[in-house]
Structures are given as C-alpha cells and as structure tokens.
Amino acid sequence: MTGWRILCGSLVLTAVATVSAAGLATLGGRLDPRGAWIALALGALAGAVTAQRAYAPRQKITQADTLLFTVFALASFRAFVWVIYEQGNELKVLSPHNLGDTALHLNLIVRWANGGAFWPDNPFLAGAAFAYHPGMDLWNAVLRTAGLPVYEGLRWTGLLGAAAAAAALWRWGRGFALAAFLFAGGLGAWALVQNGTMDIMQSETQWKNLFLTMLVTQRGILFSLPAGLVLMTVWRTQLSGTDGPRLPLMAQVALYAAMPFFNAPAFLFLSVLLAACFATAWSRGLQRPFLVVGLISVIPATWLARMVTAGFTAGSAFRFDPGWMQEDGGLWFWLWNFGIFLPLVAVLGIVLFRRGGADRTGRVFYGVAAGTLLFSFAFLLAPWPWDNTKLMIWGYLALAPLLWGKLLAPRPVWLQAAACLLLFTSGALALITGLDARHGYKLADRTELAGLQVMLRSMPVNARLACAPQFDHPAMLLGQPVVMGHDGHLFGQGLDYGPVQRELDTLMNGAPAWRDAARRLQVQYLLWGEREKKRWPQSPQPWKECATLVATSGGTNLYLLTPCLIGE
Questions:
Q1: Are 336 and 329 in contact (CB under 8 A)?
Q2: Which of 14, 133, 141, 382 could form a disulfide with 387 if both were Cys (CB 3.0 to 4.6 A apart)?
Q3: Cα 480 from chain centre
C-alpha cells in the first residue's frame, strides 16, 4: 500500500471517528465506551475503503527530500515525545508555547473521557457558551475511553499527526513545501548576531517558526494541516485535469465537512478555495466533483459549525485593523518578519498573470492564497492579533509550490540556493533553538495532582468548582469545570469574563454578599488551598462555618457549599 493511500485512509479514519463520536455523544449526552468503540469502528471502515480507492502516481524522493524528512522526523520526535512528561515530582511540558494551553486541552480530554456532559456549558467560565473547535481533544478522549492513557495519547497523536503533515506537505509542494513549513521566518536570524543568543519565544518577531508555534501548540493543526493539504492537492489535480493524486468524493466530503470541528480558519480558507475551483472549472466542464463535495458537505459542516459557535451565537472579534501587528514598525516590520517572501510573491503574481491562460490552475491558487494574506493583513478575526496566523499559514503554504515551480526552479542553481538561504536560515535557527536542551517548563506538582485527583472523586464530573483562575491549576488539568479559568484563554476566545471575575472575588474573599455570588455563579463546590490563599489572602473563609468539608489533602480543602445556601 502506497504512502498516499495510508495518509488518506488515516485522515478519513480520524475525521469519521471523531465526528461520529460527536454525534453519538450529542445523542447520549456524554461520551461512553460503547459510543467510542462504535465511532472507531466506523472510522476504521471508512479509512479502509478510502485507502483502497485513493490513487497517486509514484514520484521520486530526492536526496534533498530525504534530508528534509529526516529533519522533520527528528524535530517531531523531540517535540512530541516530550510534549508532556514527568521529571522527578514535576509534570512538565517541553515548549513554552504549550505552557498556557495544555490545561485547556487536558481539561476537555479528561472530562469527556470521564463521562462529562457533551456538548458542555463552557468549562472555563460560568454562564458562558462554549464556542470552540475541540476536534483533536475529542479524538484523544475517544482514545482514552478506548483504553489509551491520556499522556500517551497526546504523544502518539502528535507523532502521527506530524508524520501525516510531513507526507501531505511533500505531496503538495515537495521539499520546498517541507522547508517552507519547517523553516518559516524572515530576518530574525540577525538577533543571533546582535545578541549572541536566540530568543526561545521569538519575541522580536510575529511571523514565528510554524513548526514550533502551530504544529506543536495548535492541536487542531495535527489534523487540519495534513487534511487540508490533501484536499488542496486533489483539487489541484481535478482543476488542471492532469494525472495526479486523487481521492474518492465521499472521502473528500469527510475531510472537508469535518474541518470546522478541528480548525475554523482552515475551513474558511478551504471553502473559498473550493468556490474558486468550482467557478473556474465551470467553463471547462470540470465542475462536478467540486459541486458534489460542496453540496454533500453542507449539512454536516453546518451542524459542526453550529456546534463550535454555540448555535451561531458566539461573539465576533472581526474588525478592520490594517497592518496586522505592524504598529510603528513601518516597512521594517515586513522585512524583519517575512524577509524576501512577500517581494517574491509579488514577482510570482506578475509571472503568472503575464502568461494569460498558460496556467489557469496556478492563477486560481495564487489568487486565493495572496488574497488570504492580504485579508489577514487588513482584518483581524480574533481578539489576539497573532491568531490571524492560523489563517495566514494557509495562504503561505498554498503559495509554496508556485514559488518554487514557477519562479525559482527555472533560475540558475546559485540563485535558487541564495533564495532558499534568505527564506529559511532564520526559521532553521529558530527551530534548532526551540528544541534545544534549555527546555522543560513545570506544569504541575505530581504529588499535589495525585492528591487532588483523589479529592475530586467526591464531586460529580459536571459540578463546577470555585478555585483560583490559573492556567496550571490542578483542577483544570484533571478535567473539572471551574467558575473561571485563565484570563488569557478567555480573552483569546473573546469572552467577557469581568462580571464572573468580580463574583468569584466576592465569593472567595468572603465578602458580605458571598452567598448571593455563589448562587449567581451556580457553584456548589469550593476548593481552598495554597493558590487560593495566595490570591485572596485576607479572606475570612466564612463558608467554613456552614459548608460540608468533603475532602482534604495536604492543606487543601474541598467544601460543599449547598448547606450554606439553603434558607439564607
């Protein structure tokens, strides 16, 4: 069986299993072992059929490709084997970019694997709708329900997702696409010359190394990146009418329709690309596959989009803000972040459109990709401007094969080498620095985590807990919904957490109206430990006089507040 068939079959398996699990969990109100196994069986069947029917002509892997695959494999091994790991009494993560979001993912995975409500109220903010695309977290919850430990599931999902990304990148744009993803960057390498060191967080740049900041940290990318690239590769073949990789229409539907559940920006980009391909193919009589994929995907994609936007009620952060994160950087901002990439894109456009009808397919992909970048530079889709990178990555990668095939490949070898050095040196240094031995960031104390895990068995899986709003709070890591999570998460999701924060402060400070605050928050359990003492040091803890002490461990107490709220 060829690599293309294995790639496509694996992606369809993941898509069908995850969406099936979402459907069964919605019907049953939670994910249970029977539903998880049924979802995996359906996914395996769909994946096997896809693997039998997918097709791709054999293409030679060059020595340069082999070298890039090796670098990709080594980087993936380093990043994902240590994506979360134990060292002594500490639970750590390798990447500083992962430190803030790991608790969010673990919360969803553990909660759903433990039978938590599906689709849930927002587990990180009391009273708020849950607008999030948690496809990879549900996939890991399915694996956990089927018996794979959580941390092992994170490692294997990361390794296999990275392998799929590498294979899909190569099919899309050969070695140049692999290099473009691995070594994305502008002129940031000069920081090494100026300061004698390379900032692990790449704080001086906004267009950061994509491997470190997207594949390793944005879990939905583990599916959406290879799946999106597979669709782009197949659509390019269908639009051009040439001999190239192909995929059954229902497999295309499975990958495309599942995309909103994994990555909303990817679905947006692919939808525009699908429409552009359909419009261009119409005049040539090649529109049928694009029409079929679009029509069949409407219902499942709309259902998933409705789910991840809380019934289309999620607030929008869309706004006009030209310059992306330029601020006062002027032209230097673009040179520092993108180097010669944007000038090359401009030259590529001249080359493509000067030739008229010579490469209609190339013009379609160029138009959508360049338009995506221009849109991302002028409009913001999320409260945090950097989140536009989640859309920009698609325009960037869509241009990679065109940059090489139409602009650089016809040039002399010395010019190709010079262009690649200017494009990729900075990103290569960032990749090396981002995976070196300086890493390892504490996420939790294992003894504290184990103690609280025993304590939380005394409360229902869906009961909301009042505790300190920290990204690394053990309650978050163990899957318990909390009154308020980390404000960085909440801001990034566009949630107004101010009123809840004030009510939480009233409750935890033991202010005169603390009982009313507890009722408004609809919270029954309160945790009081070192984190809470540090955040609310002046609290008289009045609930100790009326609440039921449910469990205690290492100076941390878990209280049931219900007795305090009755009759007052």
A1: yes
A2: 382
A3: 22
Shared domain for 413 and 456, answered yes or no, is: no
Helices (H), 263-406: 264-282, 288-308, 330-338, 341-354, 360-378, 389-402
pLDDT at 273 over 80: yes
The reported pLDDT for the residue numbered 359 is: 85
Residues 67, 13: Cα–Cα separation, whole Å:
29
330/162: higher pLDDT: 162
Same domain, 505 and 404: no
CA distance 411 to 404: 10
Average pLDDT of the chain, as a whole number: 92
Structure tokens at 263: 């990555």
Q: Note whether residue 360 is domain-resident.
A: yes
333 and 244 in a single domain? The answer is yes
| φ/ψ of residue 401, rounded to 5 | -65, -30
Q: List CB contacts of 122: < 8 A, sequence separation 6 or more.
A: 128, 129, 130, 495
Judge contact between 258 and 19, C-beta under 8 A: yes
H helix or E strand, kind and range, residue 558: strand 556-560
Q: Among residues 158, 186, 155, 182, which one has the least CA distance to residue 170?
A: 182
CA distances from 223 to 55, 83, 108, 415, 505 (A): 20, 17, 17, 35, 39
Provide the CA 429 distance to its chain's centre, in angstroms: 24
Count of the separate structural domains present in the chain: 2
Q: Is 78 helix (H, G, I), strand (E, B) or coil?
A: helix
Q: Is the same domain home to 490 and 387?
A: no
Three-state SS at 9: helix
Q: Is the dihedral of CA 454, 457, 458, 464 positive or negative?
A: positive
3-state SS track over 449-489: HHHHHHHHCCCCCCCCEECCCCCCCHHHHCCCCECECCHHH
292 with 397, same domain? Answer: yes
- Which DSSP symbol is given to 316? P
DSSP state of 122: P
Lowest-pLDDT range of 81-85, 128-132, 539-543: 128-132
Q: Which domain-ending residue is among 432, 461, 487? A: 432
Question: 148 and 68, same structural domain?
Answer: yes
Query: Per mean pLDDT, which range of 41-50, 119-128, 155-164 is the poorest?
Result: 119-128
Please list, in sequence order, all residues whose beta carbon lies within 8 angstroms of the beta carbon of residue 557, skipping any fewer than 6 positions away: 527, 528, 529, 549, 551
Note the pLDDT of residue 437.
Answer: 67
Pair (401, 462) in one structural domain: no
Please indicate, yes or no, whether residues 297 and 414 belong to a single structural domain of this protein.
yes
- Domain encompassing residue 543: 450-565
Maximum Cα–Cα distance across the chain = 84
AA letter at 26 = T
What are the φ and ψ backbone dihedral angles of 209, each rounded to 5 degrees?
Answer: -60, 125
> What is the distance, to the nearest Å, from the Cα of residue 240 to the centroid of all Cα atoms in its chain?
31
